[in-house]
Amino acid sequence: MRWLKTYAEKCINCGKCMEVCSKTYFKEENPALSRVVITDPGAGRNISVCNQCGACMAVCPTEALYRDKNGVVQLDKSKCTSCLMCVGYCPTANMLYAATKQTEPFKCVACGLCAKVCPTQALVLVND
Amino acid sequence: MDKMKVLAEWSYTPTKIDKGYTRKTLYVNVGEPRMEIRDVTQDMIDKFTGGRGFDLKLLWDAVKDTTKWNDPENEIVLSGGPLCGITQYPGTGKCYAAFISPLSGQTYDSNSGGYWGPLTKFSGFDAIEIQGKSEKEIIIFINGDDGKIQILESNQPDINAYTITENLHEYFATSEADKRSISVVSAGKGAETSYFGCMNMSFYDPRRKVTRLKQAGRGGGGSIMRDKKIAAMVVKYSKMTGNENNVVDLDTLQKVGVKLHKEIHDLDDSQCKMRKIGTAHLNEIMDEYHLLPVNNYKFGQNSAEIAKIHSSEYEKLFTQGLPDGCWYGCSMACAKAVDGFTIQTGPCKGEKVTVDGPEYETVASLGSNVGVFDPLWTIEANFYADHYGVDTISLGTTLAFVCECFELGLINKTDTNDLELRFGNKKDIMELIHRMAVGTDEFAAIVAKGIRYIKKAFAEKYNSDAKTMEAIGMEGQGVETSEYVPKESIAQWGGYYLTLKGPQHDEAWLIFMDMVNKQLPTYEDKAEALHYFPNFRTWFSLVGLCKLPWNDVEPANNRIVNPPKEAAKVPEHVQNYVDIFNAVTGKAIKKEDLVTMSEKVYNFQRVFQVRMKQGNAFHNIPLRALGPVFADEWDARKDYYDGKLKEIGVEPAGLSTEAKIQKLQEYRLGMWEGLKTAVYKRRGWNKKGIPTVETLKRLGIDYPEVVAVVEKYSKPEDVIA
């Protein structure tokens, strides 16, 4: 399974991960639109991102959420009804939404762009 | 499958929804045949909001004062409401149906989940009116994709619900995935003989790969469908997006919806377990509080048998872990199914089927109330009730009444055509259900018409004692009581029997507030609750919502931050409704406006009942609903009832049980009259339960034809001082 492993202790809160993520998928540098979320940028820093557990798939009424051949949970927008139950039921709060951009939710698809730009290897794309 | 013959076809341009409304309604006359698309006026939106409000307004204009349920001008009107079809908040796929009921001869409104409401709105219609009578068996097809309305000659050999629904999803879908774009409304063979035929509304379950049925169960809408020779109604709309309602403020809608999804995720397991068991979690709770109807509401508890129908027994039978919402976005997902169930009797014997439910009401109606404590029998009875298109509640309550008549010797085996209709006789009770659907057995045909009809027919035909039947027949306004024993809650007498359309449970369920938590000590307190809750709950029916997500989950702090009586209203969720209504429609309503919006329709419907009953729209209550009728009923809770007598200053020692029963009945009949007067006064009605002209004016529904009904039947002496 391909997923993004995080090392919060290495994070220096430079924001590059969120920048590249939001720019890539929404053409806009806006941390609120990033699939990687850095919180508590003080002592208790936390990197929050989808771990591809698949809990969202179980609640999706139309099976719009599915696991691709790499083990990554993907959203088929053509099947999605924008109900956002997956948002409410994500155990790590990493299914996100932004009404100004689209009706459907969005999530990390383990593309690895953030890991590439992270200067401290606080984000690492792994296959296991 | 062979193509069906097109008997009539019309093209139209579907109107896109704006802020929750298409502002168009569809009228189809299946007799002429004729189709019209009509405009919705601003006044109609302002006064009637949508959903049941639109239904009743359109029905009012369609019928005459003398219209009977099986007259061609009677309509089935179906409408979702402005919030119907949003996907971002739980419980937003409801469709409301209204018609002149065969059971009561006045209006009835009944609601269902399933995809019919949303898909018809997406196809361009805020409401659909079906009028006239067809000579041929027909299927009405609304094709929202291509903008076509068709009346097809039905080629379906079996009109029973599970079969025809499955076949029509197959017939109209272009692929497996396309089956989700379709919803079917069907009835069944039982609806042809019965006065309590239900309408089954479908959705396709992509995981189980079967069609699922939800019911607009009550009041006899399915009987009217069959009287009009409508085998089914079908809608198709496959272009659904996440914002079909074109809402004003998607951001707020999403935020409020996600908040409730999280709340259900976090709290449902420790509160109502709606996701795991659905409403069947109530079985043991109702038993504990003497509220579970046993043997025609004679008893409220059966300690010896309750373990057999404990919710944990049902939980074992339900398939777990599948999202079961009857519309997208319902994280409460209470619709449960029993998969791979093998049918034991009747025409489907031996078939493996997926059965929807049973809900609590069915566990009680086709279970404890007929003396059966066997989940497998109840599931089979549930299956056949849906399949034959009859309401499980009216069916069960009617069967319970008939069983008691049999046990009392009011009818015998000659009358029943050899059925031994004792409580708990599973084989013969099931056989009676099958005979209702076949339609040739005279006794079964009488039973299928409900308690009010039976009381008269048994007295005339079998010389059964009318007074006894009057006391134990649990109907109000001609409609069978739903499945809670109301005897010990005065407020619930009103919750059941001071309702617009009869004793269902969608107006007010006040038993715990009144009886357990003692929050309604005076008539005025009860009257206030019987004003607020029926009106608040009416609001759901105007906008297209399900009641369950309102109070079958509560915010964790609901009972901490709110005093008890306020907590019962779940204020945070009420605010949610205000927020999502404004987010969809762009209006700026406040909490207080919900009740006022409802009051307009509530009072309009009451005047409608007065109109259809020529001034005699009475609220009756059976003695069985007020307390024990027979000695064994009293003796089952002897200490409790003796205590009740002492509370009213009557010393029970030395009195026979019959005398005690009579004393309590006399007292409680007096209380019933006191309650009725207090409630009528609070609602702004006169002594006959007719809204006053002042009430109509206050609510802005003083249309000349409405005022005329009130003035025609109101007398000066009926004014409540």
How would you explain this protein's 3D organization?
The complex is a heterodimer of chains A (128) and B (721). Chain A is α+β, with helices and mostly antiparallel strands. Chain A has 4 helices and 6 strands, in the order βαββαββααβ. Chain A has one domain: 2-Layer Sandwich (Alpha-Beta Plaits). In chain A, a hairpin with a 6-residue loop joins strand 2 and strand 3. Chain A is globular. Chain B folds into 3 domains: 231 residues, Aldehyde Ferredoxin Oxidoreductase,  A, domain 1 (4-Layer Sandwich), CATH 3.60.9.10; 203 residues, Aldehyde Ferredoxin Oxidoreductase Protein, subunit A, domain 2; 196 residues, Aldehyde Ferredoxin Oxidoreductase Protein, subunit A, domain 3, CATH 1.10.599. In chain B, a hairpin with a 4-residue loop joins strand 2 and strand 3. Chain B is globular and about 80 Å long. At the A-B interface, helix 3 of A face helix 7 of B.
Tell me briefly what this model is.
Chain A has a two-stranded antiparallel sheet. In chain A, strands 2-3 form a two-stranded antiparallel sheet. Chain A has a single domain (2-123), classed as 2-Layer Sandwich (Alpha-Beta Plaits), CATH 3.30.70.
CATH architecture of the largest domain in chain B: 4-Layer Sandwich
**Total beta-strand segments of chain B:** 17
User: CATH class of the largest domain in chain B, please?
Assistant: Alpha Beta
One letter per element, helices H and strands E, the order of chain A comes to: EHEEHEEHHE
Describe how the helices and strands are arranged:
The complex is a heterodimer of chains A (128) and B (721).
Chain A: E1 2-6, H1 16-26, E2 37-39, E3 46-48, H2 55-59, E4 65-67, E5 73-75, H3 85-89, H4 113-117, E6 123-127
Antiparallel strand pairs in A: 1-6, 2-3, 4-5
Chain B: E1 6-11, E2 24-29, E3 34-39, H1 42-48, H2 52-62, E4 76-79, E5 95-100, E6 107-112, H3 116-122, E7 127-131, E8 138-143, E9 148-153, H4 161-172, E10 182-186, H5 190-193, E11 199-205, E12 210-216, H6 221-227, E13 230-236, H7 250-267, H8 282-288, H9 311-317, E14 337-342, E15 352-356, H10 360-365, H11 375-388, H12 392-407, H13 426-438, H14 442-447, H15 451-462, H16 466-472, E16 475-476, E17 479-480, H17 490-497, H18 511-516, H19 523-543, H20 548-551, H21 558-561, H22 564-567, H23 571-585, H24 591-612, H25 623-626, H26 631-635, H27 638-647, H28 657-683, H29 693-699, H30 704-713
Parallel strand pairs in B: 2-7, 8-13
Antiparallel strand pairs in B: 1-9, 2-3, 4-5, 4-7, 5-6, 8-9, 10-11, 10-13, 11-12, 14-15, 16-17
Helix pairs in contact in B: 1-2, 2-24, 7-23, 11-13, 17-19, 17-28, 19-24, 19-28, 24-30
